[in-house]
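Thread: quick sanity check before group meeting

JM: Hey all, I'm pulling together slides for Thursday and realized we never actually wrote out the predicted structure for the chain we discussed last week. Dropping the sequence here so it's in one place. If anyone has concerns about the input, flag it before I start.
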Amino acid sequence: MNAPCPSLENVEVSVIVPVVDRTDPAEAVWRAYRTVLMSTERSFEFIYVLDGPHPEYAEALARISEQEFPLHVVQFNRPFGQVACLLEGVRRARGNTLLILPAYFQVAPEAIPTLLDRMGSVDVAAAYRDRSRDNSLGRLRGWWFEMFARMAGSRFRDPGCAVRAVKRHVFDELQLHHEQHPFLPMLAEQLGFKVAQVSLPQAQTDRRLRRHRPLTYLSIILDLVALSFLTRFMQKPFRFFGSLGAIFIALGVATGIFMMVQRQMGQEMADRPILVLTVLLIVLGIQIAAVGLIAEIIIFTRNRSQTVYRIDKIIAQPDEE
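JM (edit): ok, ran it. Output follows.
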């Protein structure tokens, strides 16, 4: 039986499905998602964004759109990454609630309404999988990713879970770059939005043993390092560069004092590489600190009007005459 077509004016939930590398059969995934959304009695639309050529997947989506349910399907001419797919889906969405779902079963589909029910009081509802039945390697990999994310300042469990519900206005201020989509809840919370975590059962097919390329892990570590710097020192870069520069200067001064003590004890200073090291450490420390000071000046002069806070509600205010 065909699903009712969504009204163009009254879409409540926009389902955004980025199609990147990992996929399950398109028709099976769509049917499962559509069934649970119909049970919520909310009007919805589906937006699929294909990251580069996916001919078989695109053909399956075309059949669904023509025969059963109108879909929005966008295909990039080459791979640009999941963040690009997500932002393109947000740009085309008409609903006030954006439901971000992967193109494969990551959580049990029947549990998705639980995520939507949390949207009444928060701006972002981030799912995390109950991985108690996952294979040992999967649990270890998830724990490893979570621990590294905590080092970057994240408090959220299972950052690898791509199932999220987000209110549309969050993306008016949220800036995602490169592959920062796993840290969307953390970035939203940094901006002052209300974020909740919701435990959902893991899909059975997601428990299969999977292998990732070593470069994938290296990319994740580099992204976490960059994210840690951006979230902690974006408004105060001199604290990072100044501290690092002070360490180098202190080391240079310490080695200089050590040389002076040795010279007083009759030690010859000629042809000693420690003299060059002393000068190098001091000069390098000054340069690093100067970079932080310049960055602080740029932020002070260019971002005076940018607020770094969010008002939750106004409790009381005097009447204006």
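AS: nice. The mean pLDDT is 85. The first strand starts at residue 13 and ends at 19.
JM: adding both to the slides.
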